[in-house]
Design a protein that fits this description.
Blueprint (H helix, E strand, L loop, with lengths): L4 H6 L3 E5 L3 H6 L2 H15 L6 E5 L7 H15 L2 E3 L2 E5 L5 E5 L4 H13 L6 H9 L8 E5 L17 E5 L8 H13 L10
Parallel strand pairs: 1-2, 1-6, 2-5, 6-7
Antiparallel strand pairs: 3-4, 4-5
Helix pairs in contact: 3-4, 3-7, 5-6
């Protein structure tokens, strides 16, 4: 059975963009953050996306570097900070989450520590903590970088996600690039870890 465009679009609720190094993010001015977030929000408009996550591709960052990045984003775009993340409600209720941690293992350990303080740990609690406020893993992960390497900032997020690699610099990614990745996603037959028989 062939899916209609509407059915294809409804399968795309969460997009994660993995782009730029921590150093590039530190060098991104508040005006550039605003322009980049605006472009990403415009890119996913009209396809039913409810969550847009943005992670750095790589890099080491201190607490002061993460704070500086969060402050730059908030000064240009508003939003609320929670730990290493800034969350913004954009057009049509789209929730944009910018996570400044470029180390997926560190994000995983921090989530376990947060849960372990008060409750037992299970997969649902871990997923909810790592992906919050999104309600599930990304449907599409767009990696701005080489297709021969998975970024260390991604760990949990790849289990059921479709990957699209574009060798485009962080601040050069625009509406056309995101829409091209969405088009690629919509042409795929998702098997959620299954294999063809």
């Amino acid at each position: 059975m062939v899916k209609t465009t509407r059915e294809l679009n409804s399968d795309l609720a969460h997009i994660l963009v993995c782009a730029g190094t921590v150093d590039e993010w530190l060098a991104t001015s508040p005006e550039q953050w605003k322009a980049q977030i605006d472009a990403l929000v415009r890119s996913v408009g009209g396809v039913g996306v409810r969550w847009l996550s943005i992670y750095p591709y790589s890099g080491e960052s201190s607490a002061s570097a993460r704070t500086a990045i969060c402050n730059s984003i908030i000064s240009s775009y508003g939003g609320q900070r929670s730990g290493d993340r800034v969350s913004v409600v954009a057009e049509a209720g789209l929730i944009v989450v910018i996570d400044t941690c470029a180390d997926g293992q560190e994000r995983f350990v921090n989530a376990i520590a947060k849960i372990g303080q008060t409750h037992g740990i299970d997969e649902a609690k871990l997923a909810a903590t790592i992906l919050s406020p999104a309600s599930g893993e990304p449907d599409l992960v767009l990696v701005l970088g080489s297709p021969t390497r998975v970024p260390e900032s991604l760990m949990w997020e790849l289990a059921y996600s479709e990957l699209v690699f574009l060798n485009v610099p962080w601040l050069k990614c625009d509406v056309e690039h995101i829409q091209m990745a969405i088009g690629d996603f919509q042409r795929r037959d998702r098997r959620f870890g299954g294999v063809d028989s």
